[in-house]
Amino acid sequence: MQFFIQNMAPIMFAGLIVFLLMGFPVAFSLGACGLFFGFIGIELGVLPEPLLQALPLRIFGIMQNDTLLAIPFFTLMGLILERSGMAEDLLETIGQLFGPIRGGLALAVIFVGALLAATTGVVAASVISMGLISLPIMLRYGYDRRLASGVIAASGTLAQIIPPSLVLIILADQLGRSVGDMYKGAFIPGFALTAMYAGWVIVLAIFRPKWVPAMPVEARTFREPNGSGGLPSLLVLTAITVALAITFAENYAKVVSWWTGTETTTVAFDETLVVSMCLGVLFAFLAAVLNKVTRLGLLSRMAERVTFVLIPPLLLIFLVLGTIFLGIATPTEGGAMGALGALTMAFVRRRLSFSLLKQALNTTTKLSCFVVFILIGSTCFSLVFQGVDGQKWVEHLLTGLPGGAIGFLIVVNFLIFFLAFFLDFFELSFIVVPLLAPVAEKLGIDLIWFGVLLGVNMQTSFMHPPFGFALFYLRSVAPTKEYTDRVTRQPIAPVTTMQIYWGAVPFVLIQIIMVGLIIAFPGIVSSGLDKTEKIDLDKIQQQMNKDLGQPAAPSGDAKPEALPQPGDADKSDAAEQKKLDELFGAPKK
């Protein structure tokens, strides 16, 4: 019994693993394990009885957490956009744009996946949409099945790391950090990962051209009357837009100084990027509208189509992320504006119906309840686990690793990568992250950087064969039997489960490389954060003394004055009395 009392924390953690392996739902496993060991601890005298009385207060605290309100808002926004046909229009347009080059369809899927990630934040919606729309087209034109499956699943999982990601909201809440800072830190890694996916497709286009063929001429529908693709005018419009955005970004600090009336020398990179992008997008949209209304004929059909299809999601990105990065809105308020913007876009496109709204609200409610129940279970477990000094056990276990902070990061990432085979990111965030955060903070690791690192690693949980959820989503929409293509009338072989698994492997390796790059180059994350200005207290004190007409305080390099000694007050009083006697004469005795 004494052994059980002294080792209750590891026994409790092992009990949770047993509950999970038996197949119980995670939320109920956490709650049952916490209550079971809580009652045992009270009976053995390890835990005080009033400890469990704090549980209702913690649960009410969950319900009052404003940060978690962003989850249903962003989920609703993503589902409305996915069901309103935005993904279909994007894939069709970008596919026609990139189709003439080898690997163009795969590049279009990656680009649209990143755009959907920045607007929806929901992996399931992205993977299913692109699987239904782009997979038949890629199979029709002879793409390798493994590559087609892998690129769709990997592009869908970009919603895990590109803001507004649900996992970043959960990680920020568990780490006790700002969601806005977490979004800023993940901005560069998310799009760097997108570039690495595109780089892999380009490498295959060079060395395995048969895997990624170009679209045939007859499949390119957006063509000019003379038969050309209309790309020159699009390139000119893009060049002018990019040049305008870059020029504005270089002078953005001066614009901020003029606008605020205070001199500003540097502005955060993410803020500069979002505002400059918004200006460029607005210019391109106005140019396309002017060309269409006046019928000048300066822009081709392709240029107009690309502009009008890309503007709504880019506008929604600015509405959500732009207001968060600029400090105008909190993530919860940004999510509310995004949901309203998605409803408005669906209404304008005449695709908003009662059945669509009902389906989106139903799915949003299910996901939100799922998150809250897991959070309640994890709160019950963590309360008892902390009561039996579980945090100290984990801290001693991890701080004793060789290599200090680097050793800790390597072990933690291996642990997350292994657990991701069996648990999804919600479960990892609520079970593992609260145990790791105190140790990381004690080792001097910035928790924003640590959260983004874990977010990139948890992204692999959607891609792991054989339990990756993105692979299951793709399997549900990929053809399982041979069918006849509706355009070419040719028989198309099915996509096997093993082809989906093997297609995911290269992209999982790319995600692991990204984890290594973040550890090796922390600036990938920290460069996106606002720079904290160092405050020189000595200069402030000197300025205050100058304003008050007092002698300047000694600088930090000057020797400090000696501390007052006993009897100094008496000497000071005697000296003061002597000065008074000299001025007014000594009193007569």
From TrEMBL:
One protein family per Pfam: DctM
Major location (coarse): membrane
Span of domain TRAP C4-dicarboxylate transport system permease DctM subunit: 13-524
Coiled coil: none
Keywords associated with the record: Cell inner membrane, Cell membrane, Membrane, Transmembrane, Transmembrane helix, Transport
Membrane topology: Multi-pass membrane protein
Composition bias, Basic and acidic residues: 568-582
Listed InterPro entries: DctM, TRAP_DctM
Record has Cytoplasm as a keyword: no
UniProt entry tagged with the keyword Transport: yes
Annotated region described as Disordered, given as residue ranges: 541-589
Subcellular location(s) per record: Cell inner membrane
Residue intervals passing through the bilayer: 12-42, 62-81, 93-116, 122-139, 151-172, 187-207, 228-253, 273-294, 306-328, 334-352, 364-385, 405-426, 447-474, 500-525
Physiological role: Part of the tripartite ATP-independent periplasmic (TRAP) transport system.
Name listed for the protein in its UniProt record: TRAP transporter large permease subunit
Naturally occurring in which organism (per UniProt): Caenimonas terrae
Taxonomic lineage: Bacteria, Pseudomonadati, Pseudomonadota, Betaproteobacteria, Burkholderiales
